[in-house]
Amino acid sequence: MSTIYTDDQYDTCYPPGIDNHWWTIARGAQVLRIVRGENRFGDVFLEVGCGRGIEVKALRNAGIDVYGVELADVRPLEGVEPFISSGIDAIQLPLVERERVTGLLLLDVIEHLPDPATFLKTLESSFPKLSVVVIAVPAAKELWSNYDVFYGHYRRYTTQMLVEMGCGLDWELKKAGYFFHLLYIPMRVLSWLGVERTLVHRAPGQKTRWLHKLVAYVNRLESSVLPQAWRGTSAFAVFKLK
């Protein structure tokens, strides 16, 4: 199974305007909250497997010094081109660039890998000043569907799986939890009924963007009031390197 998205997968997953979709907005807010909590003066973050740079763009707009690298040869979003390296493996970036990086972001990446621990260990040894790693993944194996198959997932995670993986790498866990708690309920029902998920991501039009912003706000709100230990459709973990 290839870990690089095909053109069809990019077209269905990242259509123009997808950064206005409620899921993208809400996930971006969750990532920003986590990264802000880890950001210190002089820190430089690198998103590995950044796609076209949706999160890189959002984080930079929020004042985070972040760059992206993507193995597939894709065209970055307009305005973020100078901060994205595409068509190259993260460990093949010039040493002068890797030496600047203090934090790595792997956002919906490691589920595409048969052996994520080995991949993460290689990253650790390739970035001399690395001190923190932020990981986000699809969660809950009971939600496995045609969507996971189409997008090349090997597994959906629990927080315990992330904790155990970090422990095996001798990384110190700083925090872990779930988000998209409310989304878990309808997805669990659809999974129980055997309903297949749509594979095409559709960007909202001008007239419906307000609705997507509203739904994103509700999802951001739930992340701040509901316990992170509650099951959600996504899981995250933050690790400090010893």
Characterization of this structure:
- This protein has 242 residues and is an alpha/beta fold.
- The chain has helices at 7-13, 22-38, 54-61, 95-98, 116-126, 146-150, 159-168, 181-193, 209-225; strands spanning 45-48, 66-70, 84-86, 103-107, 132-138, 171-179, 234-241.
- It has a 7-stranded mixed β-sheet with strand order 3-2-1-4-5-7-6, sandwiched between helices.
- Strand 4 (103-107), helix 5 (116-126) and strand 5 form a beta-alpha-beta unit.
Task: Report a brief summary of the structure.
The chain is an alpha/beta fold and 242 residues long.
Structural class: alpha/beta
Termini, distance in Å?
33 Å
What kind of oligomer do you see?
single chain
Approximate helicity band:
25-40%
Radius of gyration: 17 Å
| Major beta sheet summary | 7 strands, mixed
Main β-sheet, spatial strand arrangement: 3-2-1-4-5-7-6
Mean pLDDT: 93
List low-pLDDT spans. none
Order of helices and strands: HHEHEEHEHEHHEHHE
Please state the overall shape, judged from the principal axes of the Cα atoms: globular
Provide a count of the helices.
9
How many strands appear in the DSSP assignment? 7
